[in-house]
Design a protein that fits this description.
Layout: H1 2-11, H2 14-31, E1 33-38, E2 45-46, E3 50-52, E4 58-62, H3 70-82, E5 90-95, H4 102-106, E6 111-117, E7 125-126, E8 139-143, H5 154-164, E9 165-172, H6 193-200, H7 213-220, E10 223-227, H8 235-240, E11 249-253
Parallel strand pairs: 5-6, 5-8, 6-7, 8-9
Antiparallel strand pairs: 1-2, 3-4, 9-11, 10-11
């Protein structure tokens, strides 16, 4: 059964997977029901999570019920435990809205919630992150996670994020990051999709961010907190929620 799930999840294009997930999720959740791991987003428990990954598979990372990955569950816990995201009135801009969050955030009465992306079927506004159609100082909170590694001119994208964030507002800009690497690596001469996947981790990534990512955000004007949030969660819950120990949440303020 696991091998069949692995094949399905790695051969279906992401937009189609989003549409199919409405049918597939209940089947996966029922098939893997158990008590070993729990998805904190919906509170459901399973005997195992699903494998996921481009090239190298990671085991027990994809929730059968919400289709969340480690980063989604970590962000959910951070927003729930460390912010007033679920209670205070906020104007929120969400880039490339994740399936695990979309309906939940949309249904929150306290949020004025806008989604944006060039291609996602879940986007309210189709827009280029480097040329946003939003006024200066518009949003209390911006979520832009696992987007910047796809953007050739990430400096311009960061400047646009800064521009549309309200003074005093907060942005969370998660990215895949190699914390063993001091400086970010990019090479535009690498164009073969297989080679890009091998070097950058995915065929449509344009760089591997290093530890200097946080300083680049600071150079744009953000005040950045590098929150190693799994250190604040009990080790048994890190394991139970299938989180990536040591993942940093970049909390950016204007």
């Amino acid at each position: 059964m696991k091998s069949a799930f692995k094949f399905i999840l790695n051969t279906i294009p992401r937009p189609l997977l989003i549409r199919l997930s409405y049918v597939v999720r209940p089947v996966l959740a029922l098939a893997l029901k158990g008590n070993t791991f729990t998805d904190p987003i919906d509170g459901k428990s399973f005997r195992s999570f699903l494998p996921y990954g481009y090239g190298t598979q990671r085991n027990n990372v994809l929730s059968p019920s919400t289709l969340s990955l480690e980063r989604h569950r970590l962000l959910w816990l951070y927003l729930k435990n460390e912010t007033d995201f679920f209670t205070a009135p906020k104007k929120v801009l969400h880039f490339a809205p994740e399936q695990a969050f979309y309906k939940r955030f949309r249904n929150q009465k306290n949020l004025e919630y806008t989604t944006t992306d060039l291609l996602s079927p879940l986007a309210d506004v189709k827009a280029d992150i480097c040329n946003l159609p939003f006024a200066d100082n518009s949003y209390d909170l911006i979520l832009c996670n696992h987007v910047l590694e796809h953007i050739p001119d990430d400096t311009k994208a960061m400047q646009e994020l800064y521009r549309v964030l309200k003074p005093g507002g907060m942005g969370i800009f998660q990215i895949p990051q190699d914390l063993n690497r001091a400086t970010t690596f990019e090479d535009d001469s690498i164009t073969d999709p297989k080679e890009r996947a091998a070097i950058f981790g995915q065929y449509d990534h344009v760089r591997v961010y290093g530890r200097d990512y946080f300083d680049k955000l600071r150079s744009i004007g953000f005040t950045v907190t590098e929150d190693d949030y799994t250190q604040k969660i009990a080790p048994e819950l890190v394991e139970r929620y299938c989180l990536a120990k040591g993942e940093i949440i970049p909390v950016c303020r204007k």
